[in-house]
Design brief:
There is one protein chain. By secondary structure, this protein is an alpha/beta fold. Helix content is 41%, strand content 16%. The chain is built from eleven helices and eight strands. It has helices at residues 19-28, 48-55, 86-112, 119-123, 133-142, 149-157, 172-181, 191-194, 200-206, 222-232, 257-267; strands at residues 3-8, 31-36, 58-59, 62-69, 72-79, 185-188, 210-214, 235-238. Strands 4-5-6-7-8 form a five-stranded mixed sheet. Strands 1-2-3 form a three-stranded parallel sheet, covered by helices on one side. Strand 1, helix 1 (19-28) and strand 2 form a beta-alpha-beta unit. Helix 1 packs parallel to helix 2. It is globular and about 55 Å long. 44% of the residues are buried. The protein binds adenosine monophosphate and manganese (II) ion (3 copies). One manganese (II) ion (MN) binds at residues 64, 75, 189-190. Residues 64, 75, 189-190 line the site of one manganese (II) ion.
């Protein structure tokens, strides 16, 4: 049976690898069904389907949409959407512009803290449409303002830190609705990292079909989220959230039955 990974990033958002390198790496790790889920963009899909086909890797169309609920930063994965859906693409274009506004606001806060970087320095770190905090962190590291990428997040960029600004884009309700209207299934990403369990019932009301229960980095919480998923009848999905580097892509063995369950939900009109 193929081993799957439904949460991967490329250079089209904040991942380190281009599509071809990522899919080759996935194959070398025995992952034969994957989803590229870049933040707020389907740009990887301009080349990914052909490359995946040539490698014999099954590709599930995917995206990770940034949204806000109750002032919290909530990531919603969308699977099996029509990546040409006009309403969704229009919303993603606005989302891309709002990301630029947010990064400008973060830079302003950093400047007020005496850390001088400019937008162009951050933009140089970003290949695609989704400029984001990791690009700010990389620019800060390059400018010698922090000791490491992680240091930038811990001291300035993570939720609640001195230069944090909440995303300016879609609400979770809007994100889930767009995914569903594009024929896809919405899944709440990495609930442990998000740490907003109290919002899960609301997201269920908005129409999520799944919860990302399996991530090798948060294995301790798998049981807890599996229980919550069962309570609300959610598909238990999983993925590595791979962004590049030496992380353990392929160590987590997830069965293909997860993809079959998602397909069954779609067929059932979810
Ligand atoms: P943004 O889309 O600008 O909100 O950036 C979110 C991305 O930043 C996530 O997808 C992660 O890749 C990364 N990230 C978020 N929090 C942290 C953290 N505490 N440490 C390192 N990277 C993080
Ligand atoms: Mn990311
Ligand atoms: Mn995420
Ligand atoms: Mn992710």
């Amino acid at each position: 049976m193929p081993n799957i990974d439904l949460h991967l990033h490329t250079v089209h958002s904040d991942g380190a690898l281009r599509v071809e390198a990522l899919l080759n790496l996935a194959l070398s790790k025995n992952l034969t069904c994957v989803s590229i889920t870049d933040h707020d963009t389907f740009d990887a899909y301009s080349t990914a389907p052909k490359i995946a086909e040539s490698l014999g890797v099954e590709l599930v169309p995917g995206i990770e949409v940034s949204s806000v609920s109750n002032g919290r930063d909530i990531h919603i994965l969308g699977y099996f959407c029509d990546i040409q859906n006009a309403e969704f693409l229009a919303a993603l274009k606005i989302q891309s512009e709002k990301r630029k506004d947010r990064v400008r606001a973060i830079i302003e806060k950093l400047r007020n803290l005496g850390l001088n970087i400019d937008y162009e320095q951050v933009e140089r770190q970003c290949f695609g449409a989704s400029i984001s905090r990791p690009h700010v962190a990389s620019a800060m590291l390059e400018a010698g303002l922090v000791s490491s990428f992680q240091d930038a997040f811990e001291r300035y960029l993570k939720e609640g830190a001195a230069a944090y600004c909440p995303p300016k884009g879609l609400t979770s309700e809007e994100a889930i609705s767009l995914i569903k209207k594009a024929g896809g299934l919405a899944v709440m990403a990495h609930p442990e990292y998000t740490n907003a369990d109290e919002l899960i019932p609301t997201l269920v009301d908005y129409g999520i079909a799944g919860l990302e229960v399996y991530n090798y980095k948060t294995a301790k919480s798998t049981k807890k989220y599996s229980k919550i998923a069962k309570k609300y009848g959610l598909v238990e999905t999983g993925g590595s959230d791979y962004h590049g580097g030496n992380s353990l892509l392929g160590v987590q063995k997830l069965p293909y039955s997860i993809v079959e369950e998602l397909r069954a939900r779609l067929a059932g009109g979810d």
